[in-house]
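Format notes (please read before filing issues)

Several people have asked whether sequences and structure tokens are stored in separate files. They are not. Every record keeps both together, in the order shown below: the sequence lines, then the token lines. Line labels are part of the format and must not be stripped during preprocessing.
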Amino acid sequence: MDSVYDRIYDVVCSIPKGKVCTYGMVATLAGNKRWARVVGYALHVNPDQSKIPCHRVVNKEGRVSKAFVFGGENEQIKLLQNEGVEVVDGVVDLEKYMYKPRVIL
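Then the structure lines:
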């Protein structure tokens, strides 16, 4: 049986380059809309940043994390910008860049 973190990492891995998802949306897709904080904990201990693109997860306002574990908010901004996501004053336009999967489980 998959752990909660495994389910979260699977969702994060499904976010395409050039798109972002909120902690709450990841939580919902992983099986429980109340797991937003758990998503944050899981991303903070991400075992493989090269395979699990935690930089694609932002808060409900589109703001990047000041505590981005792999180099701080500037690194998260850089990673997003390298994928074509515009970040203005630490915020991503969710209307433009939000990943909208066809099915929410």
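For reference, the curators noted about this record: The two ends are 17 Å apart (CA to CA). The chain has a mean pLDDT of 92.
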